[in-house]
Design a protein that fits this description.
L,D-transpeptidase catalytic domain-like; 8-stranded mixed sheet; globular; alpha/beta; 4-stranded mixed sheet
Length: 306
């Protein structure tokens, strides 16, 4: 009876939403970047900073590891981590920043050149989606604190500053690349643990070594597409991979009905198993999972902490 109820629910969801012509087409990508790997906990590491560094969800970290007290890590412990994501390919020589995965993808001559974790705007100070370009760069930037951030400092009872000189206290780090949208930039940080998190006032915060690579090798004029795709699909032959993230912007794109409809609009309805799609959507681990109709998904084997 439970299986029948699930089947009826899925069938109803599919038929109700797949016929909608208002849904945007779902791109079918062809590349997955990153890997699942072993990570040795370092002094000062916290779950919050580790999940940011690998742009993974806490739920996925918990699923990959069996830890007696996951909120208290000890240096030397081994964790299974993953930064696997479906690559949202765009042009041949550009940068794509996906806010859903908090990851920057850098393409050169049509190939993925590098990908980095990126800190993005807090949910109450969201990074704007759009198509921009790099229009300038600065080494050892001075931070001219915007009036809005000064007001926030004042409201919190903090010391209000209007200008921060270059150095270890500067939140912009050593390198900054200005974007064509006023007031926004790619820059380094004095808080590396916040990279990969919803942590900024809208700017795009990178590890200092990563932004230095962009500073030296990504020329002015490079296109920067800032996107938000909480649902992605990739195909490799007969295999279909689905990646679903928690929809923090409340667009409805990660609801089961919408996911099923998007897959149908992408002509993948016959290639996927609806129950697997439902499971991946419900847990929203934010990692590519095989939802192919005829192929059993690989077993997820938890790794014990040491």
């Amino acid at each position: 009876m439970r299986a029948l109820a699930i089947a009826l629910l899925l069938a109803g969801s599919w038929s109700a939403r797949a016929a909608s012509d208002s849904l945007p087409p779902l791109p079918v990508y062809d590349q997955i970047a990153g890997a699942e790997r072993d990570y040795v906990v370092q002094p000062g590491d916290m779950v919050w900073s580790i999940t940011g560094r690998f742009t993974m969800t806490r739920a996925l970290l918990d699923a990959l590891n069996t830890l007696p007290d996951p909120d208290h890590l000890r240096p030397g412990m081994h964790l299974r981590v993953s930064d696997r994501h479906i690559v949202p390919r765009r042009g041949s020589d550009d940068i794509v920043i996906d806010l859903a995965t908090r990851t920057l993808y850098w393409f050169r001559r049509g190939a993925l050149h590098a990908h980095f974790p990126v800190g993005i705007g807090r949910l109450d100070w969201a990074t704007p989606i759009g198509r921009y370009r790099i229009v300038g760069r600065r080494e050892d930037p001075v931070w001219h604190v915007p009036d809005s951030i000064q007001a926030e400092m004042r409201a919190r009872g903090e010391r209000v500053v209007a200008r921060v000189e270059p150095g270890p206290e500067n939140p912009l780090g050593k390198y900054l690349l200005r974007l064509s949208v006023p007031g926004y930039a790619l820059h380094g940080t004095n808080a590396p643990g916040s990279v990969g998190k919803y942590a900024t006032h809208g700017c795009l915060r990178l590890r200092n070594e990563d932004v230095e690579r962009l500073y030296r090798d990504a020329p002015d004029g490079t296109r920067v597409d800032v996107i938000y795709e909480p649902v992605k699909v990739a195909r490799d032959g007969d295999a279909v991979f689905l990646e679903v993230h928690r929809d923090v912007r409340g667009t409805g794109a990660a609801d089961l009905g919408a996911v099923l409809a998007l897959l149908a609009n992408a002509r993948l309805a016959d290639a996927v198993d609806a129950e697997r799609v439902a499971a991946v959507t419900a847990r929203a681990w934010g990692t590519p999972e095989d939802v192919s109709r005829a192929v059993a998904p690989p077993a997820l084997v938890p790794a014990s902490g040491q």
